[in-house]
Design brief:
Its cofactor is Fe(2+). The protein has about 375 residues and is of the alpha+beta class. Helix content is about 25%, strand content about 25%.
Amino acid sequence: MQLTHFDPDVFLRDYWQKKPMLIRGAFDNWQNPLTPDELAGLACEAEVESRLVVQDADGPRAEFGPFSDSRFAEMGLAPWTLLVQAVDHFSPEVAALIAPFRFIPDWRIDDVMVSYATDGGGVGAHFDQYDVFLIQGLGRRRWQVGGACNGDSPLVPHDDLRLLADFEVQEEWLLEPGDMLYVPPGISHNGIAVGDDCMTYSVGFRAPSAGEMLGDYCDHIIETMAADPRYTDPDLTMQGNAGEISPDAIARLHDMVIRALSDRAEFARWFGRYSSLAKYPEIDWAAEEKFTENSLITAAANGAVLLRNPAARLAFIEQEGGNVMLFADGQEFACTDAFADFARLLCANMQADIDTELLNLPGAAPTLVTLLNQGIIAFSDA
């Protein structure tokens, strides 16, 4: 599936993280990749994150999945919306929606959330901390866009939903199947289903906060620190007041902390692991039958093709000498020479051919066996 009537360069220059953009007929020959019944079925699974938002007379009410098979047959007349996170993890057809957006680096992409709504259904006016592409898959939805918001924007008191207390519509569009709306972070918006059987696919992006990264990186530094240097002041001199923490002491203490955090190469390796962590690490994608290097060689000799698990997160960082560090679901693998080229290829595509020659390269067979056994990659049936 390809984007049409869309220029990525113009979009990145004029719209990305700047202002909303409506693209009519964004996809050539659009076909809805998931049925409402399939979405409801996913919401009944324990490993799938889902919620219902019902627009009761007293205001919106949220319920959280997994839901029973009979829950959707029991819905009353009040407008309601079902939202299911990371549907791309469980549906190859939905996962295919990510490919057109890979002009943005993979590590920035989070998941594809899918919603189904009855007439008048919606979550309510809100804003997100991340970029989102809203693709109309089935039926129609009216999107209203307002101004910029931040952490100080007043919210409606609610235990489960972060809804804006004040929302002023600045622009409004009715989206048909195949239309798409881009909304930058912090821009208020509200979607309302017009008619039943309204399905929307939300391609969301990640934007790690400084606090999140600092907390995890500091933990990593402490865990991996070979030695824990102590404060020293061999040139200490008398000071006028013993109660003062002197500027010299503050400078030394500050330098101690900054030095511990200042290794850029170590930061890069940490971020590769951090950014490639699985969205739902508790889900076990491990292969039922364990691979060995011998079975891997046999499969390669028979012309099998490697496929990436849509739920897996892969990335790489260039190293000196043309080598790369491959990251997969929070792990790192050193890849050298021609195997580094294969790692780049695997990160760039959802499938890759392998041959026995590749498996003779240093580190190639053990790395691929590990990825296969963890379900990060798999062989096609062909």
